[in-house]
Amino acid sequence: MQSNPSSQITHRFQTARSEVRALLLQCLLPWLENVELVASSVPPATPLSYIMYYPDSGTRGRREGSGSTEATEMILNNLFYITAKFADSHPYIEELWGTLCQFWPNNLKVILRYLLIISGMAPNELLAYAKRVALYLARSCTNRLLDELMSELQTVETLNCLIERTETPPFYRLTSMRKASSHSDGPASGNNDSKVQDIGVEKGTIHTKRHSGEDPIKSG
């Protein structure tokens, strides 16, 4: 992912004629087959991942590659921009998303988490386009999408989460508000204060059952 054709194509897409745009999308498709998305919150794929997702294919064995979270964000931002601006006139864009999530086990999870973040940052502007991309993914890999969604629901605790924009990288802040449990291990004290909702706000992290070792966003 060191060379990023998606940025060049996105730049040309804005001024190209409709028939040229269709050709640009076709050029992008085979490149996306070899793109493995990388995210710090997603563990690297293992040989077992390939067996689970591609049990009937002898050609999709484990492949080695290199990439970065910055390149991943650039690719997803470019594809999402093309989708938001041109998907109505170029249905072929759906095939790009389908290809991106089919050839590497972790790509679908990375895309889903990207959609959750950007739709939370600007729901009024971006939620409709995020839903469109989710529909593309559902058509391309229905069972895997359901598995990933169920996995996310099982690993994330019940919480209310706010996503705020910031001026410094990664340009957003996650604020979680946790409800304290109303159950008590000891005898009832009769104190109504124990039943009052306790809201704890922690910036820069979402609490999950798989806690990370450190806060990914720390203020200097």
Automatic annotation (TrEMBL):
InterPro entries noted in UniProt: Furry/Tao3/Mor2
Protein name, as recorded: Uncharacterized protein
Region (Disordered): 180-220
Classification via PANTHER family: FURRY-RELATED (PTHR12295), PROTEIN FURRY (PTHR12295:SF30)
Biased composition (Basic and acidic residues): 200-220
